[in-house]
């Protein structure tokens, strides 16, 4: 890869690697990543640093979820908006602005003195992450022409996330137990972010004047409806796990119904505006693009991440609540999955140039199917090396779906919608993860309660009781992965090599006939 291309990839991957995934405090009182697809620097750091933050700022365990919840809300509900803005103003502009914003508020978060300030600053961080994540996909899709270089770039983009998680995991543990404290995590993040902003300013190409941008302007009505709908849905999914009666809690039902109504209105409104030829935030016609296969790609990704992130969540619960391991010991158990994820992404960038995209995607989903099946067979006292290790290794299959999926949507759509396509892809991974987490929590809690009722000699926190629910939840994840497999098998059939350049010969213009003697042209 030429030096200029390598610097572009390093800039985009480096900045997006800093973006933190959402975290939550589950009803089981265990801090765990909600969206481990963003296995990045701050996610890894906060895995071990969250207790230190609560202790230093005198935040109760019940309130410690708020800084992370508002990050998730700010990030999830503005992805479509910022994705479209990237197509309007250029991916380079949105990427640099979002990364700079993220760096500035990282400093503020590190200086936060109390709950209110860190909650506000984390919300600002979420906006910066939402701005540069879709733009990153648009930048790579526009900078690299279809072919091996683009496929390699998207493979490296996926590999940067688990690498960032490892770095955050190590530094988070070191800082939390040193005089630097947890605040150094945010200062390091701000410094790295500023470095990538400067590097991007000089290395990312400015948008040419003749480039194809979305010229119709911003659809403010669509932005309002999508932001409100996604925000309410994100909050309802996150809050359902800790609500008094789960999904049956009245305010959860109300929020969910309101979000569904708003999203339906968003679709109707966008269809109406597109027919008029007016500006639209997300044109419904993008779902009919013949090459993008958007319904199949997004559906496949939705259920794949339902399986992937929720199974990682169950694994963490299993290590901490059944095996009795500390958060740091639990993090070490994730290293095989992270290392395999890096290798899978890098290998995927190479394989995407040579192997049918459908074959790679089906193989990756099969790994996740087997991983969920193995987890459902786990026993309370099972050793790590016998089954758990293979669960972690096979989970890395989803890391091959990431570059394949992003490359599929970025390569197929027009240049004026690449950032929007990246936003749609990211929304699908978030919603799939959140809904999978909520459904699995309900299944696990319900089955565990039924088992305890039949066996009152066990307490609710007894590993035997917990494992009944965990195994049942794993079977639901097995089903989600099978659904993803079927969607890919039917909907992505015949896609060939993803991102393959168009090799059809360009027809040569017919030669202009020579004017005959005595014609008008020769006489003139």
UniProtKB/TrEMBL annotation:
InterPro entries of this UniProt entry?
MFS, MFS_dom, MFS_trans_sf
Output the Gene Ontology terms for molecular function: transmembrane transporter activity
Q: Which residues form the Major facilitator superfamily (MFS) profile domain?
A: 14-496
Cite the record's Basic and acidic residues compositional bias ranges.
501-513
Source organism, top-level taxon:
Eukaryota
Region (Disordered): which ranges? 501-524
Organism of this sequence: Mycena sanguinolenta
UniProt xrefs under Gene3D superfamilies: MFS general substrate transporter like domains (1.20.1250.20), Multidrug resistance protein D (1.20.1720.10)
Q: What is this protein called?
A: MFS general substrate transporter
* Keyword annotations: Membrane, Transmembrane, Transmembrane helix
